Amino acid sequence: MKQKEKSLSEIFMHSTIMKYVYSAILVIIGVLFIIVSKYIYGSNLFEAYYYYIVFAVLFMILGVALAGYNTYS
Questions:
Q1: Contacts by 65-73 with C-beta closer than 8 Å and gap 24+?
Q2: What global pTM score does this model have?
Q3: Which of 56, 59, 65 is closest to 20 using CA atoms?
Q4: 3-state secondary structure of 42
Q5: Are 14 and 54 in contact (CB under 8 A)?
Q6: Cβ proximity of 30 and 60 under 8 Å
Q7: Residue 71 contacts by C-beta under 8 Å, 6 or more apart in sequence?
Q8: What is the pLDDT of residue 1?
Q9: Which CB contacts under 8 angstroms, 24+ apart, belong to 35-42?
Q10: Average pLDDT, the chain
Q11: Is 72 in a helix, a strand, or coil?
């Protein structure tokens, strides 16, 4: 029983947490896109926001999908 727990925790540490770290980085990149668009485009927010939000959402979906895919595979 203890040996099984140890191997499960090792698998969890090596695969799942690293994949969540990578996905978190992608989500942070998406959030940074929104913040950068706010500072650069100030008044013309809606024109720029549309494209930046699309990119940000794509990064976030990619990150979450990466985490989910690697959790269940």
A1: 66/19, 66/22, 66/23, 66/26, 67/19, 67/20, 67/22, 67/23, 70/15, 70/16, 70/19, 71/16, 71/19
A2: 0.43
A3: 65
A4: coil
A5: no
A6: yes
A7: 16, 19
A8: 47
A9: none
A10: 69
A11: helix
**pLDDT single digits (tens) 39-48:** 776 666 566 6
Span 13-67, pLDDT tens digits: 566 667 777 777 877 877 787 777 777 766 665 666 677 777 777 877 877 777 6
Cα separation, 23 vs 59, whole angstroms: 9
**What does the domain layout of the chain look like in residue ranges?**
34-59
Structure tokens given for 21: 């770290």
Residue whose token pair is 């942070």: 28
